Amino acid sequence: MRLIVLVLAIIFPLTGAEATDLGTTGLIDTPTARMQADGTLSASIASQKSVDIYAITYQATPWIEATFRYSIFRDDFEYYDRSYEIKTRLLEETDYFPQISVGLRDVVGTGIFGAEYIVGSKKFGPVDVSLGLGWGRLAGKSTLKNPLTEISDEYATRENDVGQGGEASTNIFFRGKYVGPFGGISYTKDRFKFMAEYNPDQYDWEVARGQMRPDSPISYGVEWAASRDVKLALSMQHEEEFGFKLVAAFNTKAKAPRYPEPLIVPTRDIPQEDLRDGIDKDSWYDVLLYDMERSGLILVSADYQPRSKNITLTISNRNYASWSDAVARSLLLADTYLPKNFETINLVLQEDNMRIVGIDTMRPSLMGDISPERFARQIDFTPASYAEAPLRRTDFVTKKLAFDVSLQNRLQFFDPDEPLRYQFYALIESRIGLPGGIDFALGYAQDLDNNFDTILRDSDSVLPRVRSDMKKYYQQGQSGVNHFYLEKIGSFDKQTHYRLFGGILEDMFSGVGGEVLYQPIDSRLAFGGSLLYAKQRDYDRDFGHLDYDTVSGFLSAYWATPFYNYDLGLHAGRYLARDWGGTVELRRSFNNGWSVGLWATLTDVPFETFGEGSFDKGMYFKVPFHAILGQNTRSFYESRLRPIQRDGGQRIEGFSGDLWYRLRGLRYDALDDSKERMQP
Description:
By secondary structure, this protein is mainly beta. The chain is built from eleven helices and 32 strands. The strands form three sheets. It has a 13-stranded antiparallel β-sheet. The protein has a twelve-stranded antiparallel β-barrel with strand order 1-2-3-4-5-6-7-9-10-11-12-13. A hairpin with a 4-residue loop joins strand 23 (480-491) and strand 24.
């Protein structure tokens, strides 16, 4: 884990990383009013004698910071805890007033870290001073009366036992008879930061389980910036215990660089006998097709009228991380090879056989040497045109064979017996284009290494075990068929798109179904529906199945909000365990390929029946690989992180409500933000 954090920090640069041992921006254990740069995703590991704390913190907006932490208590007892924290900035710092923030330390969890606080921070050159007022654990043994008791006597009582977790602990927020002061100071010099803090926490929960109460509220430490993105800290906590901390941060909203184009010899400069069979050097279409293909693009078709000044080119993007870069390259090649009579170009952008949007512009060479701002004003977005019989079409586009071998993983987090289990496997997959626009996708997983033999717990779920029988799937199906299905994707018209599929869809389920999406080009709203008949696979991941099947389906609504690149998805329908309910998804996505989000699902399954965690929820991450490879690629790593895996509220991910997210890079708002980048 520590090595992974360091490697990621080197790959995804940022201008700083700040975190307490609990993951939140602050000093050693106490929070400050400070926030990270907007879009910062930080990962921290803190180790003390009695506990290790792993935390992920995301700066969700310039004024909201959210943290998920996983704590492993040891020494006199062993315990694993998951908790969430949220901090909101109320006032920004000015010349005369401090920055002020308010936070909830255990919003959804067992309440072990339960504390609320309001804190102010003020800088004086290299010195940063913070002072706050805390409730719960941060009240310590203070005798200061809770000021909220003047509003209601209910605020004088604080419930210590909030149950099995998973529910918002609203009945304890800012409650308790007393509040306590906390705070600290830091001094930054070059690559070092020296810290001292007053932390009134009395560690009552730990003391009740046999640990000693700290003698002093004073902690101090030093932090070293190993790079812009990685920081190491050593602390003396409560003047009696050493602590170590590693923090790495990644900038999810950084603008992706425009990578150098691969050096290719223009087709017009290659002797005819050296060209691939079927390429006519005297045909502008063949030459344009060949150079686009070697540049990571596909020229699908060209349509135009005799003696027309306008031509429509339909293109698909194989390699470019940014669709705007794909447009720029396409315009450059089109300008190079198109006959001179074509003065305007309409590029129809196609994703997975769905024609999404058209881009109208003047031929770049006719614009002259203009600024990116003026070029952007020449771009118009239109609904994607579609010709049943274009004058030129690339026939072999739908008859290709794609083959790939990649290293993949399966992870199991947060089991009480073992916090992290893993499998590394080779995924051997192929995709074959068949007539009629049908694709055949197949993949086989070959195990390389895993520790799934350490899984001891069997599922105790009283619901149909659509997900919780992971032990059987992981241990009996270490190698096997990963997927094996037919798929057809296309567009009914300029704003309605569809997907049909059938076969082995994933590790645990086969099925047949489809999805439809209605997405007007100039609207931030979209609507969709999906329906799926699913049958549960046998544990060995062969072609056999268990005696469980169900019908799952959803009606969905999507909103590309104008706020901080957030996308909102709402799904209502029937889940795999035959429960009914709804899912709310909130993702923050950027044109560089990063996406970070949350989801929560509530169904008609009572919290007690659902089990630990109360309802399904978690975090979503999509990490682009172009920064790792230093070149254009559309490859990425995608993962969902659940605090607990149960059976309620489960879907077949990637096959229900997925089309809208797949088309995110071609939405009007995403393209409009990067018009200037389309200039060749």
